[in-house]
Amino acid sequence: LASGLQFSWQSGEEMANWTGSLNFTDGRALKSDTDPGTRYFEFYEGPFDYNSTKCLGLRQNILEVKVLSMVKQTELFERWRNLQICKWEMNVTEAKFFKSTLSRCCNAPAFLFTTQKNTPLGTKLKYEVDTSGIFHINQEVFRMFPKEMPYYRSQFKKCAVVGNGGILKNSRCGQEIDRADFVFRCNLPPISQKYTVDVGVKTDIVTVNPSIITERFHKLEKWRKPFYDVLQAYENASVLLPAFYNTRNTDVSIRVKYVLDDFESQQAVYYFHPQYLINVSRYWLSQGVRAKRVSTGLILVTAALELCEEVHLFGFWAFPMNPSGIFITHHYYDNVKPRPGFHAMPSEIFNFLHMHSKGILRVHTGTCS
């Protein structure tokens, strides 16, 4: 290998982080250990054009894996690593078709949030999972809803959806995330100075799981300022909660609005529309994601695909090792595992890798330049 060749072994995207060209003095190619006959790169001078013959073949290597169980995890990782020599670009035709499907099934620009327009005063609103439960929309709660959705279709040019995966640690993706026109974050993740190099600070929407409020902030029944102080890290970001997921979520979610009003905060509080969540779950079930509940990250990615022209994912990885086979923590800030069997995270990520390969969205799993 030429002396100018440098590997970024920590990134999980070795191919994408080479500097200098690849020259083999003995004329041999760089070959795959598992499939020496097909995946190889002679005289690498990348990144290659996404639609080049070489990259079309590498993308097909991902797409031909129809279900996750078809290949070993290490084989999937290798195929994904190999694809990193290709410069990603959006396939407008594929993206438009996928977004039109989401428009018919889910329609985030009209139904992502519960609004006065889609949920009039007096509505008997059905919960997402407690289907026998009904919440009567009274005047007090109705006034908390925005008049209509604050966002419209393809409003933002480039969006970043930031998951909390350990794949973000040492990624140095903070600046790239902050350059996005709109940034989604999940479940009050830490964005203090300790993490900003990797995860950035810009936040336009941050979701809050009511279980976090229950466990960390005692349902806001006692001291409320600690919760308010945590939200200030996100400056003027809107706060999004699943108030109508089940009956337990409603009171504590509505309490968030009271807290922010008490402290005269300018942050908006929105609530997922339960029918939107139902429709998103049904759609992804049809795509093979079988879980008790789809993750908040998947819900935000689904919404972003309708609200944004171009969608980039950071911190989405569902495996204990990065694509290079190096063990990583579950989150970038801790190693607390989720409840087993609740989400189908590997299946969700598998769908994202397919969408990346089709040019619908981009999945970042390595270091950012």
UniProtKB/TrEMBL annotation:
It is a single-pass type II membrane protein. The keyword Acyltransferase does not apply. Keywords: Disulfide bond, Glycoprotein, Glycosyltransferase, Golgi apparatus, Membrane, Signal-anchor, Transferase, Transmembrane, Transmembrane helix. It is found in: Golgi apparatus membrane. Pfam families: Glyco_transf_29. The keyword Protein biosynthesis does not apply. InterPro entries: Glyco_trans_29, Glycosyltr_29_Sialyltrsf, GT29-like_sf, Sialyl_trans. Belongs to the glycosyltransferase 29 family. This is Alpha-2,8-sialyltransferase 8E. The lineage of its organism: Eukaryota, Metazoa, Chordata, Craniata, Vertebrata.
